[in-house]
Amino acid sequence: MRAPTPSFRDQLSHVRQQVASEVQSEKRAFGLAVIDRWSEHAAANEAWEVIDQAATSDGSPHLEPVDLIAWVLEKGWEHHRLVTEIVPQSKALEDRAVSQAEKNWRTARNGDPNFGILAGIQNKLARNQAAMRLRVLGRQPNPRKLFILACRELFIANCGQPLDQVTEILLFAVSGAEPKTNEVRDALKASTRAGRHSAKM
Q1: Given this model, what pLDDT does residue 192 score?
Q2: pLDDT of 13-37, one tens digit each?
Q3: How far apart are CA 23 and CA 26, in angstroms?
Q4: Minimal CA–CA distance to 51: which of 147, 159, 185, 154?
Q5: Phi/psi zone of residue 50: left (φ > 0), alpha (ψ -120 to 50 degrees), beta?
Q6: Whole-number Å distance between alpha carbons of 145 and 148
Q7: pLDDT tens-place string over residues 32-80
Q8: Is residue 148 over pLDDT 50?
Q9: Residues 143/82, Cβ–Cβ less than 8 Å
Q10: For 1, what's the count of Cα atoms within 13 Å in the CB-facing half-sphere?
Q11: Burial class (CB in 10 A: 0-12, 13-18, 19+), 100
């Protein structure tokens, strides 16, 4: 007698055992929380069936459960670091450099030209940091939007369609916060005036 085919929740449980052995404690805790939220979601198995059926009917490259779980954990960790480290620290570095530059400009005006040179260097570093942040994250950093767009790309490549309802489940799993109404759909909208203008053309 053949053993029953493992459900998607069974696959999550299997991966959970592997994540539990992760050496880095913060990453381990994050991964376990993601899998637990995902597994406990009422539509966890149904969401996988939607992915599986879409890929089969479209003839796109088939996405295996373990591959999807590994991808979500990787992208989810990126989302977590953006929220907790990269975005807040990047802005803090810029603000600190600008503040120190202004302080040194004032000192230079009081008679010490060396502080003027130092202030110029610090101001340039702050501008470079700001330019890098804008290039990587955009003018209004939104880690949730970046995760949504990554999911959309994955599903279009593997299923031929965006599967927004599945993305909502994954967004909840990695963030712990329920998606807002139309948040996934609205992620495609440009967030700047220039972007909205070009989208209309």
Answers
A1: 44
A2: 999 999 999 889 999 999 999 999 9
A3: 9
A4: 159
A5: alpha
A6: 5
A7: 999 999 999 999 999 999 999 888 766 666 789 999 999 999 999 988 8
A8: yes
A9: yes
A10: 2
A11: middle
Show Cβ contacts of residue 49 under 8 Å, excluding neighbours closer than 6 positions: 8
Question: What are the structure tokens assigned to 34, written together?
Answer: 């993601």
Q: Which pLDDT score, from 0 to 100, does residue 86 have?
A: 65
User: 101: which residues sit within 8 A by CB, 6+ positions away?
Assistant: 119, 120, 122, 123, 126
Q: What is the pTM of this model?
A: 0.70
| Tokens 């939104």 -> residue | 142
- Both tokens assigned to 182: 């139309």
pLDDT for 141:
61
User: DSSP assignment of the chain, as one string?
Assistant: -PPPPPPHHHHHHHHHHHHTT-SSHHHHHHHHHHHHHHHHSTTHHHHHHHHHHHHHHHTPPPPPHHHHHHHHHHHHHHHHHIIIIIHHHHHHHHHHHHHHHHHHHHHHHTT-HHHHHHHHHHHHHHHHHHHHHHHHH-SS--HHHHHHHHHHHHHHHHHSS--HHHHHHHHHHHHSSPPPTTHHHHTTS-SSHHHHHHHH-
